């Protein structure tokens, strides 16, 4: 007969953290939110750790190369969505990896024979006001000059004026030589009052550009998640159907971490995909999932997964539970899988990080997920609200919103995520098409969220995620205590009145 769980399926809303002693050293600035994303042996360090416990969801409406760069600057990781052509996804990975901490591969390049019209069209297309002029128009060609907005006047210069007559020629440029340090490059920028310093090799070929504005950016992004080459660490989603073609292209593009994007990861298809990656690539890491119990965790870990994603049906635009009756309350899923992770670590000495994916509505739910055993969280709706997400900002009534749709919706056309070996199309939807309130920039909102998490951890007497997991005291709450926890028995002022 069927097996029945006697304990109800719990959500994060049903729990609260109890405070521990807050010592004088427990202040938000002392809290370390670094956390592993790849498995590691006891006594060793993980190959990749996040500086904040956040990843953005593998979704068309959330994670493209712009989000990948923005979140990596904050210390987290994006998984660029896989429900697109292999070529376009690889291009997004390549663009994100091209951003270096200080050293930037030129992405706007022309030849001397181009015209002012070409300069203006390229600026409109890329938003870049600095254009490198190389012999062949490539990012790594022989540098012949630079064009900036100060080199031409649209009101006076003819659109067919050749770039050769506009550019600042190489002979007049201050350049750095390949191999100099970022500190040395910045010294040249400040000494010569430059906005941009080209870096060239011994043959005058362009290597990188270093911008003055990036100096402030680096100071403002001390937690940037970087690889050994000072490029941002980038993730990408894959499926279990075209992985033999998609994975090689993503690896060639420079991807650091892969994750299988699926609503239910407890499958032989995922095992085959993980084993393919592990057998063919030594330094590429792969997460698998999603699972909601010990059995699913064990199956994917034994297949070789580097981290496990937890959660089915808890996302704000996911209707898997409604459509199929499959899933589990996110808190219950995290609690059981975290226990399985700890049990596996005791048996083998191998620690496999887990990611809580779904079910997070409020910022404090992130702290709860971490306290319950998650190493990091994956969020969709949270990131979809920001300027850096790829969707349109539209005005409905008096409010701005951003479009947000699930990978299981007809709009996403992502049948591979839900395929179980049958018809190659989406027979029914497991996600919806919707809007989320526009919230501004990622950095502004992320800073607020991180401060809340750190403050709560201090209330729990913890200065790290590991310490929080060891010390946290968690209680179930009743329906009436939920009411008690919010504003009640008062007449709230209108927000417009409060602003005045």
From TrEMBL:
GO terms for biological process: GMP biosynthetic process; GTP biosynthetic process. Residues 167-225 form the CBS domain. Keywords: CBS domain, GMP biosynthesis, Metal-binding, NAD, Oxidoreductase, Potassium, Purine biosynthesis. It catalyses: IMP + NAD(+) + H2O = XMP + NADH + H(+). The keyword 4Fe-4S does not apply. Its cofactor is K(+). The active site is at 318 (thioimidate intermediate), 417 (proton acceptor). It holds the Pfam family IMPDH. GO terms for molecular function: IMP dehydrogenase activity; metal ion binding. Its EC number is 1.1.1.205. Belongs to the IMPDH/GMPR family. This is IMP dehydrogenase. It comes from Brevibacillus nitrificans.
């Amino acid at each position: 007969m069927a097996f029945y769980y006697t304990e109800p399926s719990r959500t994060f809303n049903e729990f609260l953290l109890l405070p521990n002693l807050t010592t004088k050293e427990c202040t938000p600035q002392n809290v370390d939110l670094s956390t592993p994303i790849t498995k590691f042996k006891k006594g060793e360090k993980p190959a990749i750790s996040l500086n904040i416990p956040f990843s953005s969801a593998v979704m068309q409406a959330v994670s493209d190369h712009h989000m990948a760069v923005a979140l990596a600057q904050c210390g987290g990781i994006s998984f660029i969505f896989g429900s697109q052509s292999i070529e376009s996804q690889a291009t997004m990975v390549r663009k994100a990896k091209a951003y270096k901490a200080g050293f930037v591969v030129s992405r706007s390049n022309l030849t001397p024979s181009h015209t002012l019209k070409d300069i203006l069209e390229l600026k409109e297309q890329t938003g870049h006001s600095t254009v490198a002029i190389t012999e062949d128009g490539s990012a790594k060609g022989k540098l012949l000059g630079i064009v900036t907005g100060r080199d031409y006047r649209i009101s006076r210069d003819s659109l067919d004026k050749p770039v050769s007559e506009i550019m600042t020629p190489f002979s007049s440029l201050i350049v750095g030589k390949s191999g100099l340090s970022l500190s040395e490059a910045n010294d040249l920028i400040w000494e010569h009052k430059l906005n941009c310093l080209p870096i060239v090799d011994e043959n005058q070929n362009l290597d990188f550009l270093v911008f003055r504005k990036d100096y402030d950016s680096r100071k403002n992004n001390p937690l940037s998640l970087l690889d050994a080459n000072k490029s941002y660490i980038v993730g990408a989603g894959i499926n279990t159907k075209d992985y033999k073609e998609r994975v090689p292209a993503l690896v060639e593009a420079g991807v650091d971490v892969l994750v299988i994007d699926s609503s239910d990861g407890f499958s032989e298809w995922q095992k085959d995909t993980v084993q393919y990656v592990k057998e063919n690539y030594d330094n590429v890491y792969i997460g698998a999932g999603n699972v909601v119990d010990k059995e699913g965790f064990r199956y994917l870990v034994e297949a070789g997964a580097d981290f496990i994603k937890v959660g089915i049906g808890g996302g704000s635009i996911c209707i898997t539970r409604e459509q199929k009756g499959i899933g589990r309350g996110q808190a219950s899923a995290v609690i059981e899988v975290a226990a399985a992770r700890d049990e596996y670590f005791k048996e083998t000495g191998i620690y496999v990080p887990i990611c809580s994916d779904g079910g997070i509505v409020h910022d404090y739910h992130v702290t709860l997920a971490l306290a319950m055993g998650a190493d990091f969280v994956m969020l969709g709706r949270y990131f979809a609200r920001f300027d850096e997400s790829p969707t349109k900002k539209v005005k409905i009534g008096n409010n701005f919103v951003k479009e947000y749709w699930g990978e299981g919706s007809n709009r996403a056309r992502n049948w591979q995520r839900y395929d179980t070996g049958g018809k190659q199309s989406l027979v029914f939807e497991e996600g919806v098409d919707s809007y989320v309130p526009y919230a501004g920039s990622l950095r502004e909102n992320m800073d607020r969220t991180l401060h809340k998490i750190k403050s709560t951890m201090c209330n729990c007497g913890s200065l790290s995620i590991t310490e929080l997991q060891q010390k946290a005291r968690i209680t179930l709450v009743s329906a009436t205590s939920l009411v008690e926890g919010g504003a009640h028995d008062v007449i709230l002022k209108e927000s417009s009145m409060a602003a005045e």
